[in-house]
Write the structure tokens for this entry.
Amino acid sequence: MLQEIPESVSRVLEILKRNPQGLNIMEIAEKTGLNRMSVAKYLDVLTAQESVEVRTFGRAKVYCFAGRRIPVAVFRDHMPLHYAITDSDLTILELNDYVPRTIGKVGIRLPDLFRGHVANYDECMAVFGEVLAGSPSTVIAERLFPGGSQFCELLCMPIRFPDGSPGMMSLSVDITRERRAGMADRADAEQFRTMIEGLAYPIFRAGTDGILTYLSPRAAELGLVAGDPFGRPFADLAGQQDRNDVDASLRAIVESGEGTFRFRACRPDGRKVRLEAICTVQRDPSGACTGIVGLLRDITGNARPVRKQGPVRGG
């Protein structure tokens, strides 16, 4: 149709370019000299082609030239992600080419699609409700299959149709591989933590500034856990008379890479113990020191008196 009457269409577009604030159909008809019915037909086609945008203000429609904006249809056709557009009832109105092979057809309601097939159905429905209320959100959906599952991260955004009704656009990314890798990492970390906490000696980690970031539960057997030790200086474990030496020893270990030092500690019950810290440093891929790890031994029964000496000796 537009190819048959390019001059009339060109006049409509030219008027809209000159009036970036937008015009209604009557104003466009007056400025172009065309009748309103013809203008309405041209605008319907131009809007479908995304050459013109329509904005709704109550019952009134205002048309604007789309300018050099990339047409949404082109963007959707080349989008590498799965997407679905729904209305306020979560009925699917549009899918891109990837999705029909995996989740179904247009016209299906997301609740019906998810029920019985997504493990965290209630969580997903709650997020969709928030999105329809106007708040963008993200949820990871676990889709169940015989003998396994698939994890998809859904980025959900509220949209509004030209008639003013709310809807939702959901972009989906398959993160099954990453999710399973994360689950394996957490299992490995839990196994490592169990091994560490099962050692006969308490294990600690401190930053290069000497602040504790980890102290295994075994430290309770030495009476060292009086309150929460995390975020406090490691030297706080020592008695007041040895704290400066402990700080100096930790600084020397950061420089040398490893070392051993002894200090006196006071249990909450008032009994004094003598401890030996055997330490090494952790480094990042560039070789920079990122912290100190070590174990503590109770040497109360066989320790020599602590004398003022060098702050640290090599391991």
Notes: Confidence is low (pLDDT under 50) at residues 306-315. The CA atoms of residues 238 and 265 lie 4 Å apart.
